[in-house]
Write a structure and sequence with these properties.
With about 350 residues, the chain is an alpha/beta fold. It has 17 helices and eight strands.
Amino acid sequence: MILSKRPEVDRFLSQPDPAVRAVLIHGKDRGGVGERALVLCRKLVPDIDDPFDVTVLTEADVDADPTRLEDALTAQSMTGGRRLVRLRLDGKASVDKAAAEAVKVHAEGGYNPTAALVIEAGALGRDSGLRKAAEAAKGAVSIAVYDDEVGDVARMTREALAADRVGLTSDALELFVARLPRERGLMRQEIERLILYIGPGSERTIGPDELEAHLGVEPDASLFDAALQAFGARAAPAQASLRRALAEGEHPAQAVRAVTGHLGKLRRINALTANGATAKEAAKAAGVFWKQEAEMLRQARAWRPDALSDAGASALEAERACKSTGSPDALIAERLLLEVVSRARRLGL
């Protein structure tokens, strides 16, 4: 079954049909995919971090051992409640096929019928076996995540600001929305930064001039600056920015997400220019800060889709490693930045 209209998607995520055993959420905006998956998972089980009733698998897990997905879906709840199996994919054909087969069997009740399978994937073409399986099965749902429209972003911003009792004038809101990246996770981060700048609970509403002062502040220790330097093949500035950020209390996992966000902007610039947009139009639509426009466009010319896919896979692996108990998060983040630097140099940057 396919859910495409926003009202029906929101209704399903907030009140999932018990007859649906498998849900595929896919799209190029991985932040938007993850956000919707999180909303759904919290409705399916009381505690999404419960190690007994929740199993989280990655593409690497299934690729290394295809039986792990079947074992997770077959297992029974230790507490008598509903089990949840979360699978995050990055586009490997062999895993797409294995996941498609699991969706077909599970949708028909072939495994533990009380278990819920939620799959998060990138953009899937119509030839994807997984997408076809989720769309065809009665006990499965396929949800495609598309880029947020300007109106959706403005509404999300207004709601987030109102929740913390702050606001923007209409002119400032238009300016802020135009500057936002089009990746949902990065949008949320930028909105949270703005709320902290205005002052949560202050009842303040700021205009364009004060907003410009906020948007113009790019601290040297910014993890986003570390990512910008890494993709530009500048190892020393990238490492320096990372270390200063960590010294100021930033978590290494945020550095990994900054890398993911930066390559997301490069992907969007490439996609828009390929579809006829000018370089400046593409940069603006991707939420590039005007002072970084020239550098981002320089990088976009060198970082082609295959190179970005390789970097994205490395970032996903680094994020997974950061979540492992006792992992050296800071070293993992620094190693990722240096790997990006190395790739950038091979691309001629």
